[in-house]
């Protein structure tokens, strides 16, 4: 809903920065976020909204950041691609493909040095595993048995490039991580419960010194790579493929499941949705009402004290 | 040829035409990079290439900037002329080892026995929240490395002529395109023409001050010069076209004539190409200088994202006018030019609909 | 403390002592890099650390420069203060993405909410066939990047005081050591003392010319100044110590006093730190300059390997004397200093037995 | 013998550049060099003497290069770590760990574009597989089915660092290449015949479009990492380990084998050795007699015409 609201309002041209929405991929963030504790660390990529929110990141801070306001979580300096919320140990997201993977390993190292039972989790896409730094990072995490949770969201595309022009036929990303020496599994990225269970048990073992874990979750991005529209008209993916995944909408699948299992009623869901919409309206209002940073702010905070 | 001269293309189309022209005449020219054959075709600059030259010569690649740079270099040892493209210069930071330790040094460290004829196209940007990881200008890094050539065309016709020369040059060439130039139109002849690397171009003739510029800043300078002219100030505008090697002869002769120099650059200030020009001019034209040399480049600061923060961050025609005025001891009214720019400051023009 | 002052250590030992001092007082300081715990201990600079602080805080690493830089950065988010070492700056080219896109920008791009207190020690070299891939000075690259600090100590006592400040600074600091300095002795107090980053030091006082220098070039300058003094020339020698940020105040005040400036640098010339200094001095002290500013840095050329080729390639005391003489219109006999250097030109002294 | 002569004469301090000898590891270069044809491409690392010579590289040019002479194969600019001989398609060696691996893949790409049946072979050590560029390079070679022969000489050390501080326990380097999708084998790097056979059959398949091949050959460096001495006194490896490998000297093993199989007599070997020694003496004399480059040469050949 957050993403869809952004999408709806993007064409007001008030959110003036590249924005990568995760509609269709919500389940991965949701499941992993549910497993992690507040003091666990998370890092993410250009497509970070879901990860940020699922870690408990401040919604108003995020929307204000996309609006470029002083009250944004990065005070307007970062935009959609550079989010942070230190209150919940969401340590940052950035737009260089693969760039945060070694940072996650570094946080893992710091946990080991400080002897806490935290986890360092890093989210990335299927293109990130093509960067050498991915491989170097996993190698080091395994070598030092660090508590790093690698979550690869395989949505089959990097911008408009399908996997087949980037990785050899028959490649299974999770097996690659395995060959480096990492405990590794794959799963259905649209099945929130299955992911929750898998990740839970991995994280339990990790908290007890079990070393790093890698998950590949297959899922699908609905909207265009960057921006608020749909882009199936470009022809880089088929309508059939898109429909196939759209039918497997992780949110409605999970809702149906919850209703069927009588965990929740349709009515309760509606109430939750209304609450979210209210929160969202407030967040957008907060963002719209907030001041822009003063132009001199551009030249501050280059160095830390 | 005369007819030709009146042919209008925009900068992106001019790049595209240079690619066609090069690939047509020499089958050792190949083109690769993320998205070169995707629906958007690198803002149209690689349109039609795959269809015309096939997937062996025009191909997408894994997100492996360092190795793929090495792949281009290695292929060039066997006579291939690769043109590699990155949608943002920032991504290319992953490949500095291959660029500097291999491409730049190879010819020299093997005693001149072999060479590396590769072109790397890098896009730099400005505005629309490109922010800290999508907008860096690093020409001074490349210019600092002996063995590399660095090209930064400002006009459509230069873009074509310089890209053709870059592709057929036997050295590694960094070819930097400013995103805000892609839609600018100019006269672009249809024929194969080459603009020599290392030669600057005088775009405006004047006696009062030399403005030394490159890439998009040249466009801002042209705007500024119009206003300055109305105010009785005549500028010599030298567009460097190639920032390594630099056409020192033209720079010095201009400064010797005017006795004043303002250097423009798209990058941050410290250790920039602008620094180099100010330094050399000060060393070589010391006795000709009538006042302190000046430069206009970005403050030493990463790029902010919010449009509120980029307003003061970037330099434009207004800043140029103010600087020139100061150097000549004249106060010039800039309200007119400020008004000219009706569109918001963070887009290059109406055609720009974000987010790239 | 007075006694202390007379305590002699060499530059490598001073680095080692700074590491001990930092790791002793703050257990968040860690030290890693290829070979930090091997038998040679990075030319002795990391001796004893593993024994004293254990393998969790002092460790070797895979040959993965890019990821390991990121690992250091990530660890620093959680309060760790990593000191990472590379035996040659050239190897660190693999890590430019992590350094520039992450370490340098992190504090800024998240609105100042977090910082990256990491130190990266890089060795630069000269002579003994280090050649094209083992001797590059890239301080100007780092100085060009906002958010990084760049330190280049010339003396043993500065090495210790600056390394301690670097480790406890909350920003990413590039700490560049010249291999030819490691064996140079100096007075190094045993206590913990900090030399502020961004403050230069006046090593010689004179009225005739300002020599602005850094790292190993300062040693050559000291030799040159002795000879110049005998010839009646008094030099102001400013050792920058930190090349980013630069202590402009001291530089300008010296140049305003002497009216002449010669800038020395260990790197190639174009777009160098020396360029920046010449440029700024020309812009800021224009009216004080009595003659054109000058710089002595390397020709824009990769490093050759053969000792026959490095002879003319590197700059030394003789070149400084000749330059100063030229600027002052004096001819100075350099035969004496040429003779002083009995050992071959491609080694720093008798102690050096190659190959590193 | 070449390496040992360099070692013997290094302390004359006339070879003034870092020099990495391959004594103990000769068999790998010998076997692979025997398989490759003259127009196949080879690239190598800091430890390149063996690879250069086995490809047919000019001996005098190499020795003169180490002496820094004008007649050196890189005209004095490269030194021991930067050798080239275009007459035999030895395309260069350089000292950045892993740095030539993608170049080898690039040559593979050029072969495919030019539709010849050449092979591009790249030699590297066990540390090079820790560089991300290794992984990126193999991925691309597999993706495009390029005729690239990857030869990893695993001598268990990177300078003084054993494998265990760099790679996870149980790592098999050749399996890593396999997981990336490359055909991959390991073998005894001191058994020249076995290697010859393995590499021959791989190269045959590669010439017929079979795609890249990876070999890990285990072997051992006798002398110090860089320089002409032994360095077992430093204590980074045990005397037992060293003795174990010394007894498995690939050269004498192969000699014994050849004599036993009556392929050659002891006498004939002696004759060959004398010939080599003569060639070597000539090469050293050539190097010593050659002129140094003029000092102005330092500033030439920065750009190609
Ligand atoms: C090093 C680098 N190369 C290229 C890009 C351009 N780029 C931006 S997003 C993107 C797609 C990445 O795909 P993936 O990792 O699968 O994430 P997804 O967008 O599918 O979520 C690319 C290639 C970049 N940001 N960084
Ligand atoms: C990128 C890089 N990092 C570090 C070094 C320093 N270095 C020189 S040789 C060497 C050892 C490499 O080991 P390996 O690849 O196993 O080859 P070997 O020396 O054992 O033949 C290292 C680390 C380097 N040259 N390049
Ligand atoms: Mg993807
Ligand atoms: Mg090894």
Outline:
The complex is a heterotetramer, with 2 copies of chain A (305 residues) and 2 copies of chain B (356 residues). By secondary structure, chain A is α/β, with parallel strands linked by helices.
Characterization of this structure:
The complex is a heterotetramer, with 2 copies of chain A (305 residues) and 2 copies of chain B (356 residues). Chain A is of the alpha/beta class and 305 residues long. Chain A has a single domain (2-287), classed as Rossmann fold, CATH 3.40.50. Chain A is built from 11 helices and 8 strands. Chain A has helices at 2-10, 26-35, 49-54, 59-66, 101-114, 132-143, 173-180, 192-207, 239-247, 250-260, 266-289, and strands spanning 41-44, 90-93, 120-125, 148-154, 157-158, 161-162, 183-188, 213-218. In chain A, the strands form 2 sheets. Chain A has a 6-stranded parallel sheet, with helices on both faces. Chain A has a two-stranded antiparallel ribbon with strand order 5-6. In chain A, helix 6 links the parallel strand 3 (120-125) and strand 4. In chain A, helix 2 (26-35) packs parallel to helix 8 (192-207), helix 4 (59-66) crosses helix 11 (266-289) and helix 5 packs parallel to helix 6 (132-143). The radius of gyration of chain A is 19 Å and the shape is globular. The model of chain A has no long low-confidence stretch (mean pLDDT 95). Chain B is of the alpha/beta class and 356 residues long. Chain B has 2 domains: 6-189, Thiamin diphosphate (ThDP)-binding fold, Pyr/PP domains (Rossmann fold), CATH 3.40.50; 201-339, 3-Layer(aba) Sandwich (Rossmann fold). Chain B is 39% helix and 18% strand. Chain B has 14 helices and 14 strands. Chain B has helices spanning 2-5, 11-25, 41-44, 49-53, 65-77, 96-109, 139-144, 156-168, 215-230, 248-258, 273-284, 307-313, 317-328, 335-340; strands spanning 8-10, 29-33, 58-59, 81-86, 119-124, 149-151, 173-178, 185-187, 201-204, 209-213, 235-239, 242-244, 261-268, 294-298. In chain B, the strands form 3 sheets. In chain B, strands 3-2-4-5-7-6-12 form a 7-stranded mixed sheet, with helices on both faces. A 5-stranded mixed sheet of chain B has the order 9-11-10-13-14, with helices on both faces. In chain B, helix 9 links the parallel strand 10 (209-213) and strand 11 (235-239). The longest helix of chain B is centred in the middle third of the chain and has 16 residues, at 215-230. One thiamine diphosphate sits between chains A (46-47, 95-97, 125-128, 155, 157-159, 225) and B (34, 63, 65, 91, 94).
């Amino acid at each position: 809903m957050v993403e869809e609201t952004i999408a709806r309002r993007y064409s007001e041209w008030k959110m003036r920065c590249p924005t990568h929405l995760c509609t269709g991929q919500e389940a991965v963030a949701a499941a992993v976020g549910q497993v992690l504790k507040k003091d666990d660390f998370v890092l993410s990529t250009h497509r970070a909204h879901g990860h940020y929110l699922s870690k408990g990141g401040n919604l108003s801070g995020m929307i204000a950041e996309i609006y470029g306001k002083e009250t944004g979580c990065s005070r307007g300096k970062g935009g959609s691609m550079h989010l942070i919320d230190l209150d919940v140990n969401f340590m940052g997201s950035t737009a260089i493909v693969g760039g945060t993977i070694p940072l996650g390993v570094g946080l893992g190292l710091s946990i080991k040095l400080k002897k806490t039972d935290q986890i360092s989790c890093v989210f990335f896409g299927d293109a990130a595993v093509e960067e050498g730094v991915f491989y170097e990072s996993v190698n080091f995490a395994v070598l030092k048995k660090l508590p790093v949770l690698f979550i690869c969201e395989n949505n089959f595309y990097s911008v408009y490039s399908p996997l087949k022009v980037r990785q050899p036929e028959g490649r299974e990303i999770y097996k690659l991580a395995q060959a480096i020496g990492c405990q590794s599994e794959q799963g259905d990225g649209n099945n929130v419960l299955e992911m929750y269970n898998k990740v839970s048990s991995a994280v339990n073992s990790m908290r007890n010194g079990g070393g790093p874990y890698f998950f590949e979750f297959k899922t699908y991005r609905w909207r265009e790579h960057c921006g608020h529209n749909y882009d199936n008209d470009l022809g880089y993916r088929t309508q059939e493929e898109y429909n196939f995944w759209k039918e497997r909408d992780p949110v409605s699948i999970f809702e149906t499941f919850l209703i069927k299992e009588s965990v929740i009623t349709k009515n309760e869901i509606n109430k939750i949705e209304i609450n979210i919409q209210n929160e969202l309206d407030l967040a957008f209002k907060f963002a719209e009402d907030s001041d822009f940073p003063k132009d001199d702010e551009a030249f501050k905070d280059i160095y830390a004290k | 040829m005369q007819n030709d001269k009146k042919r209008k293309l925009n900068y992106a189309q001019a790049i595209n035409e240079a690619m066609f022209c090069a690939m047509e005449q020499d089958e050792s020219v190949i083109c690769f990079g993320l998205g070169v054959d995707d629906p958007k075709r690198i803002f149209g600059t690689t349109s039609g290439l795959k269809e015309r030259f096939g997937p062996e010569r025009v191909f997408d690649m894994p997100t492996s900037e360092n190795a793929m740079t090495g792949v281009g270099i290695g292929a060039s040892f066997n006579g291939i002329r690769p043109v590699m493209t990155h949608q943002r210069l920032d991504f290319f930071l992953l490949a500095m080892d291959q660029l500097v330790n291999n491409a730049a040094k190879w010819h020299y460290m093997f005693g001149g026995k072999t060479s590396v004829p590769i072109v790397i196209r890098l896009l730099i940007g400005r505005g629309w929240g490109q922010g800290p990881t999508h907008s860096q200008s690093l020409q001074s890094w490349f210019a600092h490395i002996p063995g590399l050539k660095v090209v930064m065309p400002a006009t459509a016709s230069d873009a074509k002529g310089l890209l053709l020369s870059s592709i057929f040059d036997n050295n590694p060439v960094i070819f930097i395109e400013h995103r805000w130039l892609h839609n600018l139109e100019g006269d672009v002849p249809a024929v194969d023409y080459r603009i020599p690397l290392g030669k600057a171009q005088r775009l405006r003739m004047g006696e009062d001050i030399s403005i030394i510029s490159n890439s998009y800043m040249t466009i801002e300078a042209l705007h500024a010069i119009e206003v300055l002219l109305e105010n009785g100030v005549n500028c010599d505008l030298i567009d460097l076209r190639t920032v390594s090697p630099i056409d020192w002869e033209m720079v010095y002769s201009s400064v010797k004539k005017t006795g004043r120099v303002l250097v423009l650059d798209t990058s941050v200030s410290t250790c920039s190409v602008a620094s180099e020009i100010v330094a050399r001019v000060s060393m070589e034209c010391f006795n000709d200088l009538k006042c302190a040399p000046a430069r206009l480049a970005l403050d030493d600061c990463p790029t902010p994202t919010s449009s509120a923060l980029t307003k003061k961050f970037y330099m434009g025609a207004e800043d140029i006018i103010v600087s020139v005025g100061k150097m000549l001891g004249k106060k010039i009214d800039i309200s007119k030019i400020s008004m000219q720019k009706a569109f918001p400051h963070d887009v290059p023009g109406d055609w720009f609909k974000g987010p790239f």
